[in-house]
Amino acid sequence: MYDGIVQELIDEFGRLPGIGPKSAQRITFHILQTPTFDVARLAELLSEIRLRVRFCEVCGNVAEQERCAICRDPRRSQALICVVEDAKDVAAIERTREFRGLYHVLGGVISPIAGVGPDDLRIAQLMTRLADGSVQEVILATNPNLEGEATASYLSRLLTTMQITVSRLASGLPVGGDLEYADEVTLGRAFEGRRVL
Amino acid sequence: MYDGIVQELIDEFGRLPGIGPKSAQRITFHILQTPTFDVARLAELLSEIRLRVRFCEVCGNVAEQERCAICRDPRRSQALICVVEDAKDVAAIERTREFRGLYHVLGGVISPIAGVGPDDLRIAQLMTRLADGSVQEVILATNPNLEGEATASYLSRLLTTMQITVSRLASGLPVGGDLEYADEVTLGRAFEGRRVL
User: Fold this and answer.
1) What are chain B's domains?
2) H helices of chain A, where?
3) Of all residues in chain A, what percent carry a pLDDT higher than 70?
């Protein structure tokens, strides 16, 4: 629809997740027409990001050094490892400020449909980390959906032979939610996991 | 939440319109984790776009030369000018393939609240284009909202002294829409503008 580079930039933005053609057009025109938007900085960050970011050798989280900021932090408990699917989940858990242990990013979940098996995930690296016996608890924090549950149960079976407590995040009603609108499975889990007051 | 450049890129994406913190995070991780996404190309386009794109001297549409592709096209009728608010509207109208005349981009609408008066728009340039008498019809295609209507009526008053037909895009029910869900104003306009079959 547009001349040359304008259409090229719209197309390129349209390849990003969650950005449709209309949003891509809106973003492109915003960049063109808003002098206060620092397009040079965005271009610079984009050309550097893949060069500067690597993944932590220990846990697989995003890092700019060999080890990520969490693995380098001596105040974090070395006896607790929280296993997550993705580096984005690390950030989500960090936001709660509830967890002061370490992480292990699997890099996905077991999914026969997507052709992802245990060998495609960072499971061998997790076993290596657990080998020296210093870790006391592994918290399985994969998503509470089909693949996440399957991955968690695969890992828990793998860990039964070791002297390690294996736990799973609680499922139940979301805080601020409404009982009336909760699905049966979630409400069932909330009953199952009820706590004595 | 993230180390260095990852967070910087998330913040920068978050400054674009329609991209919230979660989308910005998702986009940043997509760029990091999808080797097939050509980040260098996006960076290059971003650093070039403002240098390469200017606005057409005649109509104000986006262009990479002094005049835009539409103004340069000899097959387009020189007797018809469609007045729009924004360059994005040119693309929207071009997609219909219904209009074969020229455009005039105002660069906004009259809006006392936003402090935009007639002098802030490309109205003087429009009058210059109309001065030689070759244009027979001006189609006012500003948006059918408060500011768009006010701008259209301002322009139509300005053009009454000239020997030019001034028209406005039809308002009515959107095609594929539902009478039941149409608002009163739109439905009223559809009655007003009804056509004899």
Assistant:
1) 4-52 (1.10.8.420), 75-168 (3.40.1360.10)
2) 4-14, 21-33, 39-52, 69-72, 87-96, 123-130, 146-159, 184-192
3) 100
Give the mean pLDDT of chain B.
92
Q: Which residue has the tokens 């909760």?
A: A182
pLDDT above 90: residue B14: yes
Q: How far apart are CA A134 and CA B101, in angstroms?
A: 76
Give the percent of chain B with pLDDT over 70: 100
- CB spacing of A39 vs B17 below 8 angstroms: no
Confidence of residue A189 (pLDDT cuts 50, 70, 90): confident
For the cut 90, the answer to whether the pLDDT of residue A1 exceeds it is: no
CA distances in angstroms from A102 to A70, A74, A80, A135, B29, listed in the order given:
7, 10, 6, 10, 21
Q: Which residue reads 């995040």 in tokens? A: A169
* A71 and chain B in contact, CB less than 8 A: no
Determine the Cα–Cα distance for residues A178 and A102; give it in Å rounded to an integer.
Answer: 33
- Residue B90 confidence class, pLDDT cut points 50, 70, 90: very high
User: What is the rounded CA–CA span in Å between residue B147 and residue B20?
Assistant: 28
For tokens 């306009």, name the residue.
B189
Interface list for B 5-64 with A (CB within 8 A): 5-6, 8-9, 12-13, 15-19, 23, 25-32, 37-50, 52-53, 62-64
Enumerate long-range contacts of A10-15, CB under 8 Å, 24 or more apart: A12/B38, A12/B41, A12/B42, A12/B45, A13/B42, A15/B37
Q: Tell me the whole-structure pTM to 2 decimals.
A: 0.80
ipTM of the complex: 0.82
Size of interface A-B (CB pairs under 8 A): 137
Three-state secondary structure readout of chain B: CCCHHHHHHHHHHHCCCCCCHHHHHHHHHHHHHCCCCCHHHHHHHHHHHHHHCEECCCCCCEECCCCCHHHHCCCCCCCEEEEECCHHHHHHHHHHCCCCCEEEECCCCCECCCCECHHHCCHHHHHHHHCCCCCCEEEECCCCCHHHHHHHHHHHHHHCCCCCEEEECCCCCCCCCCHHHCCHHHHHHHHHCCCCC
Q: From CA B69, how far away is CA B63, in angstroms rounded?
A: 7
